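Priority: medium. Attachment 1 of 2:
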């Protein structure tokens, strides 16, 4: 073993727990992290390329994120329960890479939490206006949302598990009721690409890829799942597989329902609203003019934002607890919560309308943090550690394919940012 890894020797002690949590909790954490506010960007970025190419983007993003998550699981099983990305990268690639990954990871999840806290302000104001006819500024409402939802993350992973199971169940019911009407109203022509004869339609695919990658951003919860279930790769692998397949089903139905009902005029009004969740819901409400459907969409949007915030916050919380070495007692978790929630809360207070921009930027960071670095970690871990209780399939071909995907997704965002690709949200 080389000198970098002589400094850190992960424990091979088998971790056991008296009672294994139910599979459904892990599926809810996986799906709840991915399904949520990010999916509201998909119709906006997919409008020009149509439903068919949207499925291609979705398949590519799923392949990359699912297999990357399984590679992260393989690596995490070499370490103690509760040890997250900082300890893994430091133990395998060294301290400099650990610091670099920490910056990328923190930027990614602070960016996502900023987007979800900003979206949560609409939930708070809707509740307040409906019940006591009081409306807060968007910045103050964002902080109220953060305090309420962050409380569950501070309590425990189990508290997040229980709340996410409730949210995913309620989201599924409201989603099915909403899309049953939207699907019936969907028009086939609206599902086709909306490009002029002078456009290169395939370029919209590359522009949209980072947004689809973000919509499958459940990799951060792998250390949390290991901490929750113990070193039980069989059940953890199932939670990731079932949760990610559930995402594909929901996203496909969502795109049929939204793309099939929105036209160019609707997308123009969404763009003027900054591509926010609320602007999309308003556009769908204008198309359907159905009060019952409007309420269902509002409920679904609210629960989607909350579930995304909880899932992403849990991954960031465990990462910071590992990085800062805070204890898992009440005071230690309180200190971790301060570092987890205060930075994005400040951002949402100062700049409350950056949802689409934040989701796109997250795609760039995600490609580096979730695809490229974990792949190199697996390559090296297979050389320096004895085989663990789980080795992901596919060998070097699988690892190299994930690295290539990571480079492609990163280039897509950079090319879009510098104007070489179409602006998918305008």
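Attachment 2 of 2:
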């Amino acid at each position: 073993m080389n000198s970098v890894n002589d400094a850190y020797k992960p424990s091979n002690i088998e971790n056991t727990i008296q009672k294994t949590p139910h599979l459904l909790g892990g599926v809810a954490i996986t799906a709840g992290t991915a399904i949520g506010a990010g999916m509201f960007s998909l119709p906006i970025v997919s409008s020009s390329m149509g439903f068919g190419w949207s499925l291609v983007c979705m398949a590519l993003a799923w392949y990359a994120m699912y297999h990357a998550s399984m590679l992260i699981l393989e690596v995490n099983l070499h370490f103690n329960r509760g040890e997250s990305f900082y300890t893994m990268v430091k133990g395998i690639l060294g301290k400099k890479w650990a610091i670099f990954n920490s910056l990328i990871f923190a930027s990614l999840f602070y960016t996502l939490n900023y987007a979800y806290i900003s979206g949560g302000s609409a939930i708070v104001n809707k509740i307040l206006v409906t019940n006591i006819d009081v409306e807060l500024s968007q910045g103050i409402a964002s902080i109220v949302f953060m305090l309420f939802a962050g409380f569950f993350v501070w309590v425990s992973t189990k508290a997040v598990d229980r709340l996410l199971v409730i949210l995913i169940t309620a989201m599924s019911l409201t989603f099915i009721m909403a899309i049953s009407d939207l699907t019936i109203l969907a028009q086939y022509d609206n599902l086709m690409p909306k490009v002029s004869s002078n456009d290169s339609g395939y370029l919209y695919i590359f522009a949209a890829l980072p947004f689809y990658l973000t919509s499958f951003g459940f990799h951060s919860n792998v250390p949390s799942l290991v901490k929750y279930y113990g070193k039980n790769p069989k059940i953890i692998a199932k939670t990731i597989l079932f949760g990610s397949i559930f995402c594909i089903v929901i996203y496909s139905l969502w795109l049929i329902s939204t793309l099939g009902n929105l036209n160019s005029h609707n997308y123009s009004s969404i763009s003027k609203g900054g591509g926010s969740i609320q602007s999309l819901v308003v556009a769908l409400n204008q198309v359907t003019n159905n009060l019952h459907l409007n309420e269902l969409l509002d409920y679904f949007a609210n629960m989607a934002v909350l579930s995304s915030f909880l899932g992403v916050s849990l991954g960031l919380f465990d990462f910071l607890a590992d990085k800062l070495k805070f204890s898992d007692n009440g005071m230690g978790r309180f200190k971790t919560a301060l570092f987890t929630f205060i930075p994005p809360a400040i951002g949402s207070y100062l700049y409350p309308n950056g949802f689409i921009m934040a989701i796109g930027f997250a795609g760039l960071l995600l490609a580096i943090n979730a695809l490229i670095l974990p792949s190199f970690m697996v390559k090296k871990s297979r050389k320096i550690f004895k085989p663990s209780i789980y080795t992901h399939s596919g060998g070097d071909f699988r690892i190299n394919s994930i690295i290539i995907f990571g480079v492609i997704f990163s280039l897509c965002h950079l090319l879009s940012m510098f104007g070489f690709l179409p602006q998918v949200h305008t």
